[in-house]
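Complex 315.
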Amino acid sequence: MADTNNDKSSEFHDLIIIGAGPAGLAAGLYAARDKQDVVLIEKLSPGGQVLTTDLVENYPGFPEGISGFELMDSIRKQAERFGLKILSHEVQGVDFKSPVKHLSLAYGSMEARSVIVATGAQPRKLGIEGEELLIGKGVSYCGTCDGPFYRDADVAVIGGGDTAVQEAVFLTRFASRVYVIHRRDELRATKIIQERAFANEKVEFVWDTIPLTIEGETGVERLRLRNVKTSEENTLKIEGVFVLVGTRPVTEFLKDAVDLDDQGFINVNRRQETNVPGIFAAGDVTSETPRQIATAVGEGVTAVLNAEEYLEDQA
Ligand code: NAP
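Predicted structure with NAP bound:
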């Protein structure tokens, strides 16, 4: 478990890793095993977005698949076996201008010679009327987490990517009907995931359609939709809306300390180096990553090996 001792106001380490998803934990595992002076800082509990995945089928080594929780818990335990310290802190700001990198925390600050940013991404919102108001009252960003609340109900999933289509199939375990609302007439999801959804009688696709408003008094009751080709509008009676339209990077705390792309993801090279010497980034927070658990792990390992080289060069 994360150490919740917040009395660490002036700690200094050779390496600080921010974020305990697959990239951060893999980096931490290597650094701890290499006997580096390293700590990993995590805002919530270790595991990252993978914790919300019911079954991971494409991480090598698990022929039957493995639950997201089990996978991340195993990686955490493996890292802690080598002595990785995971601290519970939220990084609120950074100063990377001098060779000693400075992190501002809610309680105090920490400093390091090198930093790996592996803060991942969070679900994107639609920004439509009713969404914010009905979060937790029928609007959800995680089917795996909230699916069991919708036994025998009709629900809608917004999005056509891997997450939306995979979660739609998962939701059929509970819901009687799952409408997948997609803004085009072709899914973005990979073929194998598409095929499972097409073969599931409880999944109904609503093509070329965008949500306009989410309506309801004390909970979600209706979804107002518009067909983007015909401009026709209609209302779908549902009890839950799962918004699964991709992710946005967790980089607000960086301000302009490192180079970001136009969507706020961190630009890195193949060594996972940012434009600032000694600052590396890995996983979903970076630009143009394939956003897979396996690639996040690989990027975390690449980042830490290059961070270790950097530390050696600077010693
Ligand atoms: P994604 O691939 O970016 O897909 C987002 C989906 O939401 C797209 O279909 C997009 O439509 C739609 N969308 C975006 N903004 C929208 C809006 N404002 N209104 C309506 N629809 C909107 O995101 P993801 O599905 O979360 O996947 C993220 C990454 O994780 C991907 O690289 C994916 O392969 C990976 N992933 C992999 C697995 C797996 O391997 N099992 C599982 C989950 C995720 P358009 O298609 O029209 O752009």
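Residues 58, 126, 158-164, 166, 183-184, 188, 210, 245-247, 290-291 surround NAP (CB under 6 Å).
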